[in-house]
Amino acid sequence: MNTPTGASSACLDAENRELEMPYSAIDEIADLFNDWNSALQTLDPAKVAALYAEDAVLLPTVSNEIRKTPAAIRAYFKRFLKKQPRGRIIEQNIRLFDTLAINSGLYTFDLTIEGTTVQLLCRYTFVYRKDPQGWMIIEHHSSVMPE
Q1: Residues 140, 127: contact at Cβ < 8 Å?
Q2: Tens digits of per-residue pLDDT, 84-136?
Q3: What are the b/e assignments for 3-26, b being 16+ CB within 10 Å?
């Protein structure tokens, strides 16, 4: 790179820093899905349920029952994890509101059912609340796409 006459190296360093993408609050919320998906990979329902606040509500993908207690959320994941789910975000829309954040969009799940891998395309909404222990899921809705 040629340095223009009179330009300082500090100026060029500042320009280079502007090209770097700093870690943002949006990135932090996006990473919460990765944390959740990693918890799924452990196949431990307690690790997944630990990401949900005590007062969380789960409207799960493969159950008709709304889960409103930590025990009910754990019970759902005990059954769901037997399918060895692996999620992948297709589209996400993140909005921040002080101590609340919403991540909604589309994701796929690869599930293993009776030795065969099937893929579900689902829509989702995660609502997070920033608690003293960090961002916790307070609402999670996931449903298979109707078409």
Answers
A1: yes
A2: 999 999 999 999 999 999 999 999 999 999 999 999 999 999 999 999 999 99
A3: eeeeeeeeeeeeeeeeeeeeeeee
Whole-number Å distance between alpha carbons of 128 and 70: 16
Distance (Å) of CA 24 to CA 53, 101, 114:
23, 13, 41
CA 117 to chain centre: 22
Q: CB of 136 within 8 A of CB of 129?
A: yes
Edge to edge, what strands does the sheet with 52-59 contain?
52-59, 134-144, 116-131, 100-113, 86-97
User: pTM surpassing 0.90?
Assistant: no
User: Which H, E and C letters describe 61-110, residue by residue?
Assistant: CCCCCCECCHHHHHHHHHHHHHHCCEEEEEEEEEEEECCEEEEEEEEEEE
Amino acid at 27: D
Sign of CA dihedral 131, 143, 107, 34: positive
Residue 11 DSSP SS3: helix
